[in-house]
Amino acid sequence: MNTMVLAERVRKSFGHVDVLKGIDIEVHTGEVLCLIGPSGSGKSTFLRCVNNLETIDSGHIWVDGDLIGYDVRGRRLHHLKESAARRQRRDIGMVFQHFELFPHMTALENIVLSPIAVRGVPRAAAVERARHLLGKVGLADRADFYPSQLSGGQQQRVAIARALAMEPKLMLFDEPTSGLDPELVDEVLAVMGELAADGMTMIVVTHELGFARDVADTITFMADGVIVESGPPEQVIANPQHERTRSFLRRVRAETGAQATEGRSV
Predict the structure, then answer these.
(1) Cβ atoms of residues 220 and 35 within 8 Å
(2) Which of 104, 131, 236, 254 lies deepest, with the highest CB count within 10 Å?
(3) What is the pLDDT of residues 161-173, one digit of tens each?
């Protein structure tokens, strides 16, 4: 299998705080990697490094064979200019927790903006693909709605369609359901599950253990900037080898159970 993402000894600090402490990760084409772990463990920072939204301090990240953030000249590495970094990012779709839709644009306009402006796609072709993608995420009848007229789950599905409009080779999801009401979570996870079934390579930061168990090829548990445990779902979720992993899973399950009980009592 081809390697889509390869991270070797990736380190990242903010001031005196070491956020990533030598991360090694490999994701093959068509695979889904779910990153789980407590807040502050470095999961979201790692995603931002993959997309070159953050510059790593040391180590290397390759996406589909391209060294992210650097240009190799002879035996030396040079930081990419912003224009070159943008060209790398256009092949990597990223969906954030807070949607990041333009409020003054309709769902359709949000989706066609980047293909037209960045890839030079003719407007008619961009609109046709946008309508197809809105149908794919179950929002064919919401093309002319503004973000304020959509639920949180609908906005997130528009954000997914917007990322797909750039025809990325890799999709990154940074806790895409954490800001949603519980009843809206499933509609977003269903779209992500369909993408995985279609063969999209994905790295997903999530606390949705059921989704990770059912969809991921590999689950990686991070804590304090290091990888504690990584393996197939049946190992990490069902039979974790480390006490830190077991403790985290117990806490997440307890929180999920409490939320479910609260939902039934309302």
Answers:
(1) yes
(2) 236
(3) 999 999 999 999 9
